[in-house]
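Run DUF4468 domain-containing protein through structure prediction, thanks.
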Amino acid sequence: MKSIFIALWLLSSVSLYAQTPAAPTLPVDTETKRVTYTGVVAVEGASQSELYTRAKLWLFLTFDEAKDVIKVDEKDAGLLIIRAYTDLPVRLAQSDFEPTNREVGYTMMLNFKDGRYKYTLTNYQVIGVGTSTSIEKEITAQLGKPKNKGIFLAQQYAEKVGIYAKSLTESLSITLHKPVSGEEEW
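Sure, done. The structure for DUF4468 domain-containing protein is below.
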């Protein structure tokens, strides 16, 4: 009998201190209210034209169908805009062992000036069967589910989008910091 009371007391203690999972945080542009990753990166000694050329190389090394993802290509203005898609592996529920790939589209804008470039990743869309929902609406919908059932998936979307954005911008930076003029000895 004593052990039953101890067990009940332990269970009630755990439930008192159990915390509700935190809602995910993502960088949201104050004007557009959209998830947006942006940054300005200095590249010493590189002209606008050279940065543009390096970015085009990065596009063709990164995307299988680079010509299809380029939506705006303005060399003189130092502007590239792409619309691309990636599969993000997410577990739809905590009980799932294997992740499910969710297709997510995004827009990436690249602006070039002498010695620097700016990237902006935004307009994230979760692609479903015949539907497309902004990442903001998808996360809001998940957070609105009763008893925090959707918070796990919302957190995964936030985490995976952040990891992908970081990976993409790091690979861009590596390529944009390397000359492509052919002057290197090989």
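Residues 1-19 have pLDDT under 50 and may be disordered.
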